[in-house]
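Illustration 12: Rhodanese-like domain-containing protein 19.
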Amino acid sequence: MDHETSLKAEEVLTVDVHAAKNLINSGHRYLDVRTVEEFENGHVEKAFNIPYMFSTPQGRVKNPKFMEQVLSACSKEDHLVVGCQSGVRSVYATTDLLKADFKHVCNMGGGYIAWVENGFAVKKPKMDL
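Figure caption equivalent — predicted structure in token form:
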């Protein structure tokens, strides 16, 4: 299918954090694609984490099992809001999900940084109190 192979980042639906919050509150699942370390330092409430990339001494590398892990946690029919730290990795992850025939996926523009800047609820480790 030509459309699948030619899908570009600009074709990804990106919503702002206010719209993302409304979607999550109405039943969409929030897929946080940040690293485990980033996620553990604080995340959107009710989020689940599947890293799109891993941090290595040589820099970030793509998680080769990303799609397999998403498919074990979600159905292609699930309604997903995908987010990361600032909104870049989530565009790539959302593009990959759309190419894999996920039907209801959108990217959260601005990521976790924008979520926090808007004062929305987050879950943080207890030691940060």
